[in-house]
Amino acid sequence: MTNDPIFNFTVDKAAKTLFMTREFNAEPALVWDAFTKAEILDQWVAPKPWTSKTKYLNFEVGGKRFYAMVSPEGLERWIIQEYTSITPKTNFKLYNAFADKDENPELPGSEWDYTFSGANGKTTVNISIYNESLERLEKLVDGFKIGMAMTLINLDQVLATLSGK
């Protein structure tokens, strides 16, 4: 028996889409907040030793999050996300692209779709990431999987602290 959380990661190159499923030991409302509130996102989004710094977040359809992942040496990698759909507490979608510090996106980006479901004090998050470019998808896959796994462990720790578990 293992206590490792469920983390499924698959790639469908024909559909140019990554699929991730991750289970968290926390109530859905708290996990939703962790994905939608800047003050919580900045506690877990970047793989350590990097940190996350949100310049602004306007969580509404058409709103944006503009943030940087910051290295220990101070290197900033900016990302802009525009929310395209929100169904409170169960689903949201966004368009994600790397950007410069002046919010000029580096296109093409990717379309992210987050779905949240919960039962028995646990929450499952399904994420699909459609890439406009197969070349971009292929560049991201290996490093992205490792970085995302590290980042989600950060989230486990933040959720444990916030929920008192």
From TrEMBL:
<comment type="similarity">
    <text>Belongs to the AHA1 family.</text>
</comment>
<protein>
    <submittedName>
        <fullName>ATPase</fullName>
    </submittedName>
</protein>
<dbReference type="InterPro" id="IPR023393">
    <property type="entry name" value="START-like_dom_sf"/>
</dbReference>
<dbReference type="InterPro" id="IPR013538">
    <property type="entry name" value="ASHA1/2-like_C"/>
</dbReference>
<dbReference type="Pfam" id="PF08327">
    <property type="entry name" value="AHSA1"/>
</dbReference>
<feature type="domain" description="Activator of Hsp90 ATPase homologue 1/2-like C-terminal">
    <location>
        <begin position="25"/>
        <end position="159"/>
    </location>
</feature>
